[in-house]
Amino acid sequence: MSLSKFFVLSVLHRKPMHGYEVVQAVEKSTSGCCSPSEGTVYPMLNEFEAGGYLSATSEVVQGRSRKVYALTDKGREAFKVAVDAWLEATDCIVASKSAAERR
């Protein structure tokens, strides 16, 4: 799973959000290191929804309709698997760095 997809699932793991809110939350949660555009996030949200990882409901705010995305059980499980994989990868990187520093 790409880091961008991981960050999108991460912010949606906290609470349901509309697309633009996802963009803002990813940027804020990564301190600006990952600043996905709406043009990147919306196709990702559509892909996750089509795959059953997200559900979407429509809400009307100030006369405008927007989709609010929420993780499904499948999405929560995928996020858990991704967290475990990233933690394992991080452990390997730290171990490699430590070994290189001892040389």
Keywords for this entry:
103 residues; alpha+beta; Arc Repressor Mutant, subunit A; WH_DNA-bd_sf; PadR family transcriptional regulator; WH-like_DNA-bd_sf; Tscrpt_reg_PadR_N
Can you give a write-up of this model?
By secondary structure, the protein is of the alpha+beta class. The protein has one domain: Arc Repressor Mutant, subunit A (Orthogonal Bundle), CATH 1.10.10.10. The protein has helices spanning 3-14, 19-29, 38-50, 73-102, and strands at residues 17-18, 54-61, 64-71. A 3-stranded antiparallel beta sheet has the order 1-3-2. A hairpin with a 2-residue loop joins strand 2 and strand 3 (64-71). Helix 1 (3-14) crosses helix 2, helix 1 (3-14) crosses helix 4 (73-102) and helix 2 crosses helix 3 (38-50). The model has no long low-confidence stretch (mean pLDDT 91). Pfam families: PadR (PF03551). This is PadR family transcriptional regulator. Residues 8-80 form the Transcription regulator PadR N-terminal domain.
Distance between the termini: 33 Å
Q: Could you tell me the number of beta strands?
A: 3
Strand order of the largest sheet: 1-3-2
How would you sum up the global shape? elongated
Individual helix count: 4
CATH topology title: Arc Repressor Mutant, subunit A
User: Roughly what is the average pLDDT, rounded to an integer?
Assistant: 91
Q: Can you tell me the residue ranges where pLDDT is under 50 for at least 5 consecutive residues?
A: none
Number of domains: 1
The CATH class is: Mainly Alpha
The share of residues in extended strands comes to: 15-25%
Question: Structural class, please?
Answer: alpha+beta
Listing every helix as H and every strand as E from the N terminus to the C terminus, the arrangement reads: HEHHEEH
As a whole number of angstroms, the C-alpha radius of gyration is 16 Å
CATH superfamily: Winged helix-like DNA-binding domain superfamily/Winged helix DNA-binding domain
What share of the residues lie within helices?
Answer: 55-70%
Pfam families: PadR (PF03551)
Domain Transcription regulator PadR N-terminal: 8-80
Protein name: PadR family transcriptional regulator
